[in-house]
Amino acid sequence: MKRTSLFSLGRRCFAVGLTAMLAASAHAQSPTTQSQSADPGARGLGNPAPPTSQADLRPRVGEAFTEPPPVPPSPRRLTETMFATGEAPLTLDAIEAMACRHNPTLAQAQAQIQGELGKAIQAGLVPNPLVRYVGEQWGVGGTNGEWQGVEFSQRIVTGRKLQLSRAKFLQTTRAAQWRALEQEFQVLNDIRMHYWRTLGEQQLVEIHNEILKNAEDSVITARELYNLGQATRADLHDANIVLQQARLDLLLVRNQFNAAWWELISLAGMRMQPAPLVGALDGPVEPIDFEQALDRLVSDSPQILAARAKLAADELKVRRETVEPIPDLVVTYGYGHNFEAKQNTHNTALQMEIPLYDWNQGTIRQAESDVVRQRAEIARIEFDLQRRLAGVYQQYLTAMQKVRSYQAVIVPESKRAYEVLLDAYKEDRVAWPQVLDAQIKYYQLRAEYVRQLVTWRSNETLITGYLLHGGLTAPTGPEPPGHISAVPKPR
Predict the structure, then answer these.
(1) Are 172 and 491 in contact (CB under 8 A)?
(2) What is the DSSP string of 42-62?
């Protein structure tokens, strides 16, 4: 503390000496001043006599001026532009339209629907007839045999097996449609959340540009005060540190904007250079009721609806496997020539399997187990959605409360405080550094307000979008592993 006070005293002595030298120079240019300075009694501390000897040329206390430390050079990347020349601004609707056309997971989800529909078509088709040529006892006694002809066989499926199989796969097709809707929500929710994040980073870049200007102004102010003897070299070093930190913070948010942009445009299924986004983060804050959100989630979520459609398919599967032991009929008709009787003849046959040992008891048990498992799966999904909603809602509610406070009180009050100090500075009632401190605080609070807006918007999107996200995750199929239909050639 002693060294600092002495150093400050030296700066003040230097300012006094500098003022005196400028005044003495001005007096030397007029005869009146010269006559007054010739009188020793007329000289005071503010008007020292010019040096007249070598001894008087020695440095006085506070008159040895030390050059201030240099300002750190600006990083090269700060001079680069964020957007390519001529890039048109993008809206949320435009990016969503890109995603609907180009996101590959949406095409995968539609392909799964067509695959399940193909199973439904195939499962309900009538078996093809069989035709065979029959020649009996060829070459006996050098003859053409006893009988030669053609036989036709047709399997007649009983017990409405084909209808039940087709109905079951139509239900899995319905489940695949709900899965496709789930994938659409995942893509669009991710697009919106990353849009809010990217838009927030874009606004943070603008705010940090203002913070950097504030830091540059602080450096200039500190150097001017140093020249006047009202700041120390330590103050200049601190100003340089704040300036460099502001530059690094600006580089950080620009890097974060670029990362957020590429994540956003990847979800849209595109590859394009960063472009400015158009939109508003802030808006009217209307709280979402937790109970209403939970009721909507467990009743209308595509995950729940897909699981219920799958349960209906499993129940149809039990009915289908129950009628499997009912034997099908195989009808055979043949027409040919009897060489012994020397005339054309007909033959017929009727064939059926007797379910004596295998009456499909193992498969029926497996199908019934799938029904029990799917009912438990629906309950699991409901409670999992409730658990996830609790966490997301807590983040949403906290961010909403902060947004309201920043929107109504904190940011406006900080702005008014800055404006009051600015007006006071114009009237020479406060120093400029106080204005700069109020300005930097205002910018920092605005930056925090933007971050809370992004959190609020993102969690609001999740709640209204059934908690679905993961726009580049491959869509799940309607059949879980280990299911009876998750095998080749399902019936």
Answers:
(1) no
(2) G--TTSPPPP-STGGGSPPTT
pLDDT tens per residue, range 415-450: 999 999 999 999 999 999 999 999 999 999 999 999
Over its C-alpha atoms, the chain yields an Rg (Å, rounded) of: 44
pLDDT attached to residue 447:
97
Query: What is the phi/psi pair of residue 153, to 5°?
Result: -125, 140
* Nearest in space to 458 (alpha carbons), one of 382, 385, 393, 387: 393
* Exposure string for 233-258, b = 16+ CB within 10 A, e = fewer: eebbeebbebbbebbebbeebbebbe
Distance CA 450, CA 280 (A): 11
Q: In what order do the strands lie in the sheet with 130-136?
A: 130-136, 147-156, 329-338, 343-352
Helices (H), 273-336: 290-300, 302-322
Q: Per CATH, the architecture of 91-125+157-324+360-464 is what?
A: Up-down Bundle (1.20)
Nearest to 207 by CA among 458, 456, 445, 454: 445
Number of residues that this document lists for the chain: 491
Q: How far apart are the first and last CA of the chain?
A: 90
d(CA 207, CA 215): 13
Identity of the amino acid at 88: A
What one-letter code names the amino acid at 428? D
Q: Could you say which residues of the chain have pLDDT below 50?
A: 1-62, 487-490
pLDDT of residue 215: 96
pLDDT at 480: 60
Per the listing, tokens 């008007």 go with 47
Residues 51-110: tens digit of each pLDDT: 444 444 444 444 566 788 899 998 888 888 888 777 789 999 999 999 999 999 999 999
> Which residues are CB-contacts of 464 (< 8 A; sequence separation ≥ 6)?
288
pLDDT of the residue at 339: 83
Residue 146: what pLDDT?
83
